Amino acid sequence: MVGIVLISHSGPLAAEVAVLATQIGGTGVPLAAAGGTDDGGVGTSPGLVEAAIGEVDRGDGVILIPDLGSSVLTARLMEGPGVVIADVPFVEGAIAAVVTAGTGASLEAVLAAAEESRNFRKL
Amino acid sequence: MGAGDLDTAFFAAWIEEIARTVGVEKERLTRLDAAIGDADHGANLDRGFTAITQALAGTEPDTPGALLALVGSTLIRKVGGASGPLYGTAFREAGKCLGDASEVSATDLAAALQAALDGVQRLGSAAEGDKTMVDALAPAVRAMSRAAQEGKEPGEAIGAAASAALAGAEATVPMQARKGRASYLGPRSVGHEDPGAASTALVLVALRTVVTR
């Protein structure tokens, strides 16, 4: 199953989006939140992101969903074989990715589903 | 070794001077960042370079390339803001470019600075005019490459690069940000110097300070 890492400037924001995505998409998906700095401040920690990737990697690929700024730059440092960034809205993209990953879809399919969330209309 | 070539001790002195000036200037950098960003640039860089000073106190790498690579990886791990990955990549790529040479000529340094710029642009996708550190770094690279091609010694090439970086940072004031957190502000980002360009100028001025000692 594809793993998903939520990378935010804020620890609580990443954790709560993970809670929401799990509630909608089911608990079977390897999902980790990597928000905030090592000491719990606002920012991004490459160490936390690296650990989160290791935690969710089941061998089928990992999708990184960053919010903005240094989260994106830190995610880019972690890109590699089987580790890709989804350039998507943080909340909608996370939910779409978790729902699709839960079906056992491939890395490409999960990435495509996350990217489709760009076009979700609320009204 | 050519006239004025630079050794590991020179690069260690440069890093020490950056750490000192970041400590002195962190309030100004944070003020610039408060205007158009999230008010942590000075504090973040200070945390990064303080960690580097501690790392270097334990072990001094034996080539300029290894030293810059250590600086880069420490910045990536310790800074926590956008400047960590960006400056970290810049120093790491510069270090990689210098390889295991024990002395660095003006031509080598120009190539290393170009590698730093390439790394920053690959990571952040910023072009000149986007109101980022690239607006200080790119003119500095051009000035240093030109000086090296003209056969200038490292001291003179560094002087030209520092002046170009300062002018480049100054030129970000009227720009509207198109990259980074400041871009969310749109037209409100106009009228402020970009903090990343300002700190890039500071890093190159530190290099000039050390070479003219």
From TrEMBL, chain A:
InterPro entries: DhaM, PTS_EIIA_man-typ, PTS_EIIA_man-typ_sf. Signal peptide: none annotated. SUPFAM superfamilies: PTS system fructose IIA component-like. One of its GO terms (molecular function) is phosphoenolpyruvate-glycerone phosphotransferase activity. This is Phosphoenolpyruvate--protein phosphotransferase. Residues 1-123 form the PTS EIIA type-4 domain. Keywords: Pyruvate, Transferase. GO terms for biological process: glycerol catabolic process; phosphoenolpyruvate-dependent sugar phosphotransferase system. It comes from the Bacteria. One of its GO terms (cellular component) is membrane.
Automatic annotation (TrEMBL), chain B:
The keyword Phosphoprotein does not apply. InterPro entries: DhaK_L_YcgS, DhaL_dom, DhaL_dom_sf, Dihydroxyacetone_Kinase. Keywords: Kinase, Transferase. SMART domains: Dak2 (SM01120). The keyword DNA repair does not apply. It holds the Pfam family Dak2. GO terms for cellular component: cytosol. One of its GO terms (molecular function) is glycerone kinase activity. GO terms for biological process: glycerol catabolic process. Residues 9-209 form the DhaL domain. This is Dihydroxyacetone kinase subunit L. The lineage of its organism: Bacteria, Bacillati, Actinomycetota, Actinomycetes, Streptosporangiales.
